[in-house]
Specification:
Distance between the termini: 41 Å
Radius of gyration: 21 Å
Helix content: 40-55%
Number of domains: 3
Order of helices and strands: HHHHHHEHEEHEHEHEHEHEHEHHHHHEE
Number of strands: 11
Oligomer: single chain
CATH class of the largest domain: Alpha Beta
Mean pLDDT: 88
CATH topology of the largest domain: Rossmann fold
Shape: globular
Strand order of the largest sheet: 1-2-6-5-4-3-7-8-9
Strand content: 5-15%
Length: 370
């Protein structure tokens, strides 16, 4: 991990990181390589070009770091960050989503519009076809409402079809939702979802992107953002998708990341269901009700299928509750102090939140006396 680990980098280091982030051929892996090699972005920018080439970076990247265009892009990003709802999370910051940090090649910087604390809450991704059928959209809305009401943050990609239906239903249920974009946050795509994007950020959710603020969407950026959708989430629910759907990429990434994969079955005559049926044949859990998802996520806790959380006084004796009553902690801190896997902690927090025993504020969890 990089040497630099404050919650918010000093202005000069933040500006240096924004410049590195803007360079050609400097993806997440190269970004982290530069910080590991030089200790900070500021030092990386000052290093000789030969040192960059020795690390496998191009001469073009080494030359561009001092260009006026790169400096102006970093300055524009700093101006964007002056707004109260605008944030950037560095991978070595305590505020970076803990579950996302576990995936291969996590984003080095994450731009967030809205509440970054929502990214630490238990999330369930919902994805599917852009050309979904009316029954498929109804199914997405029903699952999203129920899961949001059960305390899950609904995470998706802001696309038309299933994504949009899932986001809207979560908001309608009074829940939170996260949209991971395949473009920069100053270049919302699709344009028809501008209002939806604003509502997500204003109603307790978040818009998220690893791309520079003005980046346009491309054929490459959508598959790239899919690893973030699955990486933020405990599991991925595919509602309706054909064989060629990008939703299957998200499901495959989820399986590779060790997340749960759920799929809704449908008619064998409906081409839009063939992707879901393929996922089920490949081992995804067949889902007909929200209860099937809740049962599937218990696997993260290592509970037997018949095991249940004891009501009433039992949560007070729970070591997780006891730690939160002593002092508020992030989910990552709880996992470290309890010696539990992070997904187990997140599922337990959801169940205790539903029982009214804990509450999340600004990314930290608090125990509720009583």
């Amino acid at each position: 991990m990089p040497l630099f680990t404050p919650q918010t980098p000093p202005p000069a280091e933040l500006e240096a990181r924004l410049r590195l982030h803007r360079l050609p051929d400097t993806g997440a892996a190269h970004f982290r390589l530069l910080l590991d090699a030089f200790g900070s972005a500021s030092a990386a920018l000052s290093a000789p070009a030969a040192a960059w080439r020795a690390l496998g970076l191009s001469q073009a990247s080494a030359d561009a770091r001092r260009s006026a265009a790169v400096r102006e892009a970093a300055s524009a990003a700093l101006r964007w960050l002056e707004a109260p709802q605008h944030h950037v999370l560095a991978i070595d910051s305590p505020t970076y989503p803990a579950l996302l940090k576990e995936i291969p090649n996590p984003p080095a910087l994450l731009f967030v519009a809205g509440d970054p604390g929502v990214l630490e809450r238990p999330q369930l991704a919902m994805v599917g076809s852009r050309r979904a059928s009316a029954p498929g959209l109804d199914t997405a809305r029903a699952f999203s409402r129920s899961l949001a009401s059960a305390g899950f943050v609904i995470t998706s990609g802001l696309a038309v079809g299933i994504d949009g239906a899932a986001h809207r239903a979560a908001l309608d249920a009074g829940g939170a939702t996260v949209a991971v974009l395949g473009s920069g946050l100053e270049n919302i795509y699709p344009q028809r979802h501008l209002r939806l994007a604003s509502a997500i950020a204003e109603q307790g959710g978040a818009l998220v992107s690893e791309f520079p603020l003005d980046s346009p969407p491309t054929r490459e950026t959508f598959p790239q953002r899919n690893r973030i959708i699955s990486g933020l989430s405990l599991g991925v629910l595919v509602v309706e998708a054909n064989i060629a759907s990008g939703s299957l990429i998200t499901a495959r990434l989820a399986a590779e990341q060790g997340r749960e994969v759920f799929a809704v079955p449908g008619s064998i005559h409906h081409p839009g269901m063939k992707g879901c049926h393929q996922l089920i044949r490949d081992g995804a859990q067949l889902v007909e009700t929200v209860q099937h998802i809740l049962e599937g996520l218990r696997g993260w806790q290592g509970l037997a299928p018949s095991a249940v959380i004891e009501p009433a006084a039992a949560p007070r004796r729970d070591p997780l509750i006891q730690r939160l009553l002593a002092a508020p902690q992030s989910a990552e801190q709880l996992a470290a102090s309890l010696g539990w896997p992070l997904p187990k902690v997140l599922v337990a927090l959801t169940e205790h939140e539903l029982a009214g025993a804990v509450v999340c504020e600004a990314g930290r969890w608090f125990g509720r006396p009583g």
